[in-house]
Task: structure prediction
Amino acid sequence: RIQKAEEAYGEALAIKRKLAEANPDAYLPKVAMTLNNLAILYSRTQRIQKAEEAYGEALAAYRNLAEANPDAYLPYVAATLNNLAILYSGTQRIQKAEGAYEEALAAYRKLAEANPDAYLPDFAMILNNLAILYSRTQRIQKAEEAYGEALAIKRKLAEANPDAYLPDVAMTLNNLAILYSATQRIQKAEGAYEEALAAYRNLAEANPDAYLPNVAMTLNNLANLLLSNGRAEEADTHASEAEGILDPFWQARQELHGNQMARILSTRAQIFEVGNKTGEACALARRALAATYDQVIRQSIQKLIERICPTTRA
Result:
């Protein structure tokens, strides 16, 4: 089907290019849209150079259109820059990704000033993407500032529409907590995790299937924070609850929830290790290894097993 889709896009693009030569105002937007769709297809099938070329051509077309009609086409410029930034980030071209994100942010800032209801969510999304990039490149202060600005926007949006934006508030709080934890601001990390947890519990009351796994994830994150700061008993309370919440989801769809279950079981194994309960710790670590589908997690758990169960190897 991928090949058929590519052929259909290619044929449509050739027709639209020809039409755009005679009537650019009418058909250049359609050329740019088709190029964007092709770029998404190329990106999903790991044809990175082709994706980059298609995004680049779409961006040039949208820039051209935005010069004459910014209200109509600046949003497309910004969205295409975001897509390009994601592509650059995924291929470790950090400087290019940052430049594209920052240009997209400037565009959305301008759009949001004129029409906040329409564009504040996009503005917050780019801030979040930039914060992740800053965090990965150890620019902690810039990451914190971007997360903070994104969080303030999402809180405001969630006041008017909690169903739509409270999940974003919780996600950003979780990301901030990870940042605080990595920089040893334990009290701030704990506070952010607790607030994220309260938000996910709230959401799970109305939609348990969608949000209980997030409750479990946040409980486990909080458990790891507490464990690393010598609060093993509190950590076990949270990790045990996380396992109980996620277990029915994992039993129903092991491939989907296996990696998260492995993280939770690994946390519990480390808690038992601290309590010198070697047998229970070893059993939990082995269950974690059996649950995971991710090679990086598997390697980490194998090291844990070798440490906890010194007489046997995974």
Q: What stands out?
A: The chain has a mean pLDDT of 93. The CA atoms of residues 35 and 57 lie 7 Å apart. Residues 2-22 form the longest helix (21 residues). DSSP finds 14 helices and no strands in the chain.
